[in-house]
Write a structure and sequence with these properties.
With 94 residues, the protein is mostly beta strands. The chain contains one helix and five strands; from the N terminus they run βββββα.
Length: 94
């Protein structure tokens, strides 16, 4: 899994209910054709990244087909989760 493109947006909470800040990442991935997540139109990963003081974490995520936005029912492996977490930490301020 390689992240080859991304979009990040800071999410606003007009109610003030959510502590800290939230960022929505749309990560576009390059995958091997044999990977079960591979889609001809491309595969993406939507991540909600939470920052609350010193704590930074992935609050939620889901894979999707880039062409159709169809949600794919797969989970990140532990090593992939670490890659995504590090990517979000490094790119939240864009």
């Amino acid at each position: 899994m390689e992240i080859n493109e991304h979009i990040v947006d800071k999410m606003l909470d007009p109610t003030g209910i959510i502590a800290g800040e939230r960022y929505q990442f749309r990560l576009y991935l390059t995958l091997d054709e044999e990977d079960e997540l591979y889609a001809e139109g491309g595969t993406g990963l939507r991540v909600i990244f939470a920052v609350d003081g010193d704590e930074e974490r992935i609050a939620s995520y889901h894979f999707f087909e880039r062409a159709s936005e169809k949600v794919l029912d797969f989970e990140l492996e532990d090593d992939e989760k670490e890659i995504v977490l590090a990517f979000c930490k490094a790119n939240k301020g864009e």
